[in-house]
Amino acid sequence: MAAPMGEVERREVRKRICMHLEAGLTRRAAAGIERIREQTISEWYHSDEQFKEDVDASESRYEAGLTAKVSAAAMSSPTAELAQWILERRFRREWGAGTKVEMTGEGGGPVQSTLFVVALPPASEDWGEGPVLPLGEGAPRLVVVKDE
Predict the structure, then answer these.
(1) How far apart are CA 75 and CA 69, in angstroms?
(2) CA dihedral over 127, 132, 136, 139, signed as positive or negative
(3) CA-based Rg of the chain, rounded to a whole angstrom?
(4) What distance in Å separates the CA atoms of residue 140 and residue 142, rounded to the nearest whole number?
(5) Which residues partner with 120 through β-bridges?
(6) Which residue in 127, 18, 24 sits closest to 10, CA to CA?
(7) CA separation for the pair 62, 118 (Å, rounded)
(8) How many whole angstroms separate alpha carbon 113 and alpha carbon 104?
(9) 72-115 per-position pLDDT tens digit
(10) Alpha-carbon distance 139 to 86, whole Å?
């Protein structure tokens, strides 16, 4: 287990984490390089407003730099593949290559189903049909019954 950090060391580690993030590393990789738990970064992020702002700004600067490089490459590319790739990912709703799945029931109508979920108190006997899902000792059982 690592020794507790002093305030000066903590500030230096936080500064280096932001440098790693601005260089494009993930929070997990930054934590690994700094030999701290990823959860530590999360705790600092949620408890220290200045660190949160610094992390957000570092990640945004990386994103902005990467976006500029990709956009420049797309504009100078002889094909539209890179531009299409950017559009599909940046504007997913309008340009994304999605898959639409549609299910219909009898005669093209909606699929009909009924599902009952019943919580029962613990009992020594089996209550009802269907799979019984134990929730832990002393907890109620879940019995799932499908109406056909």
Answers:
(1) 10
(2) negative
(3) 26
(4) 7
(5) 141
(6) 18
(7) 50
(8) 12
(9) 888 887 777 877 787 788 778 777 777 677 788 888 888 877 76
(10) 51
Q: What is the 3-state secondary structure (H, E, C) of the chain?
A: CCCCCCHHHHHHHHHHHHHHHHCCCCHHHHHHHHCCCHHHHHHHHHHCHHHHHHHHHHHHHHHHHHHHHHHHHHHHCCCCHHHHHHHHHHCHHHHCCCCCCCCCCHHHCCCCCEEEEEEECCCCCCCCCCCEEECCCCCCEEEEEEEC
Place of tokens 């959860």: 39
Per-residue pLDDT reduced to its tens digit, 123-140: 545 555 555 555 555 555
* Distance of alpha carbon 58 from alpha carbon 15, whole angstroms: 10
Contact 55, 18 (CB under 8 A): yes
Angle, CA 30 vertex, CA 29 and CA 36 arms, to 5°: 100
Average pLDDT over residues 36-45: 96
**Whether this model's pTM surpasses 0.85:** no
Residue 30 near residue 41, CB atoms below 8 Å = yes
Domain boundaries, given as residue ranges, for the chain: 7-95, 111-147
